Amino acid sequence: MDGNAPDPKRYDVHVEYSTPPVNRIDTRSPQKSGRKKDDQADDQDDEGKDDKGQDDGKGGDDASASKQKMSRGKKILYAAIGLVVLAVLIVAGVLYWLHARQFASTDDAYIQAYITQVSSQVGGRVIKLGVDDFQVVKEGQVLVQLDPRDFQVRLDQAKAQRTQTAAQLDQAVAGLAQQTAAVDQAQANVRMAQADLFQAQADANRYRAVDPKAVSRQQVDTATASSRSAQAKVDANRQAVIAAQANVEAQKAQIEAAQASLKAADVAVANADLQLSYTTVTAPRDGQTAKRTVNLGDYVQPGQSLLAVVGDDRWIIANYKETQLAGMRVGQRVTMEVDACPDHELTGRVDSFQPGSGSVFSSLPAENATGNFVKVVQRVPVKITIRREDATRCRLSPGMSVVPSVKVG
Question: Three-state SS across the chain?
């Protein structure tokens, strides 16, 4: 470049044109060039709008009025839609209230069943388990078997004692027969002595009636002595009869004692047999086992809980507020929702009402006689039966939550 030539950077030439300026190409960077083009385009649009607004002011006023009319129409439309939605909600709420007021519902309700705690009535070691956890059982099925040998020995001893007592009774009965025979013999001896007495008295009377010179004094004395001896024999035999009869009564008492001993022996045998039967623990009802705490080889004590048997019957205890019981009656239809069966709606009937609120039967009932009484709405347990067909459609276990709804309207 020539050193005498003027430097173009030192001079800034600004030329105004009546027409839009021509965009110059900026070779420094594409991004800056693009931004400059955009700015120039925006400037041209603004200038065009200004020119149009200046040239056609009447057309702008018409457009603004049209926009205001459209905005007002939209507001009216939105307000109408809001009113319609509000009316629908109100009608739906009223219909729901009219429908809901016909039902009494509560979430304080649970499924109940008969739960029998199976315990051991005797002590012993477990030698066999007849069931496992949560197994279905039938009434009389063997659940637990204890070692029966000690009880079998006691039963054999009781039977032996009974045999001995029965022998004593037989002996007493035989003794009674013997004593009865002794009574008969004593009575026969009395009759024989009476005959001898009659003969001796007759002889003595004859000797006394005969002329004393015809018989000797010795013969008279002998006849008199024989008569007295015969009388003594009669008296002695009569006493023997009394003694034999007393022996008979004593023998009867001995028989009664032997019979009582035999009954006691029978009771001992029955008790030993009963104790032996207790070594076999059976199911008291049809159901399903639960809460098993016994294992093979354990030594259990009398009264120790072994497991529980949950019966097959199911029902619901619903704790309704006392304010909900006004229209509730026995036999009313009940619909139930169970969390364990979300796809099934169970049905049932109101069965009975507890004769008192739940707090009355609690361990610490409320004492309302104090001066700080505050009225609280009480809950009354209501028993609800489940239709058998519905109860078999899903698994229902005691303690599950239920939401029953009783149609009271």
Answer: CCCCCCCHHHCCCCCCCCCCCCCCCCCCCHHHHHHHHHHHHHHHHHHHHHHHHHHCHHHHHHHHHHHHHHHHHHHHHHHHHHHHHHHHHHHHHHHHHHHHCCEEECCCEEEECCEEEEECCCCEEEEEECCCCCCEECCCCEEEEECCHHHHHHHHHHHHHHHHHHHHHHHHHHHHHHHHHHHHHHHHHHHHHHHHHHHHHHHHHHHHHCCCCCCCHHHHHHHHHHHHHHHHHHHHHHHHHHHHHHHHHHHHHHHHHHHHHHHHHHHHHHHHHHHHHCCEEECCCCEEEECCCCCCCCEECCCCEEEEEEECCCEEEEEEEHHHCCCCCCCCEEEEEECCEEEEEEEEEEEEECCCCCCCCCCCCCCCCCCCCCCCCCEEEEEEEECHHHHCCCCCCCCCEEEEEEECC
